[in-house]
Fold this sequence. Notes:
The protein is α+β, with helices and mostly antiparallel strands. Helix content is 38%, strand content 17%. It starts with a helix and ends with a helix.
Amino acid sequence: MQMNYAKEIKARTSEFRQYLESGRYTADDQFRVIFKASKRNSPILAGLNVEVLDNRVSIPQQTPAHFAGNMLWFCSNGDVKIFSDSEVLTLCCSQDNYVRKISNYDYFSRFFRIPAWICRDDKNYILVEKLVTFENKKDQDDAFLLETIYNDYTHYFNYIYREAMMNYRSINDLIRLSPNTTHRKEFEDIIHLIDPCLFEVSFPFMRLHGDLWTDNLLLKKESTDDKQLWYIDWDASGEYIFFYDFFKFIWNELDVHDNNVYYDRYVKGEYDVMLGKIFAIFDLEFRPEQKSSYFCMFFLNTLLEDNGVMAYEVKRMELADFQRKVVAFMKDS
């Protein structure tokens, strides 16, 4: 068992050792992250199981590649991130991924606080960005978190208002134009939970983060009164219905973190005023009695977004979670 563990770490780090400091390395239980043992308590590793695998593997000194990292992170999209104490190096697995990251940074950094690029290598699809030193978020940070998200998105929406006015679509349009409607029978339950009067209403669609949740928000505290919120991981960015990111945040916390606090607050109406003001930016009215419909519209947007055949297999699993955790609740209420 120990030998297999050592072989796995050595195999996964073999082509990246020029970017890693020498020392003793270990991994999480899924080998998603391989990190220097001294970094075991890093907030970057929060939520990963790094306690059960206590074996460590030595990585000798290599010829440096002008980067000395201590943590290797294998991303789900095929990219690899390597963290040092001050920078993050990203090795993109394709030109498409590289170009998308550049495009997203150039666009969204005008409106949101995003770690700055330090340098880029267009030939080898390598990016280096500044590492944001952040802290693990606590329950008492929720108010700041939500207020900052609300303020940042309000600023963004007001800025692109005229552009958004050119891209209004109804739910019927979304269903009609999406190639994923071949799977329609699988999400009929969700369609039936949407108020029929909303199908013809036109809503603005715009470029959004696409995967907003606490794992993609970094909280930096200079002092008690000086806090900053940084937005990371824009790879799922695309054109979504304007309220998509707010509901994606609530859903990700419920589905991935098993945290139903935000969903319960939404159902109880604690976000009605905030959402009312956001809807009003686009001359729309937020109707509290249609809370379930808005949430189902968000998830329908998720299902109908065209990410290819393999992506829909992942969506099918998420759909099962949504039907169990949300749809069943809506039907009973």
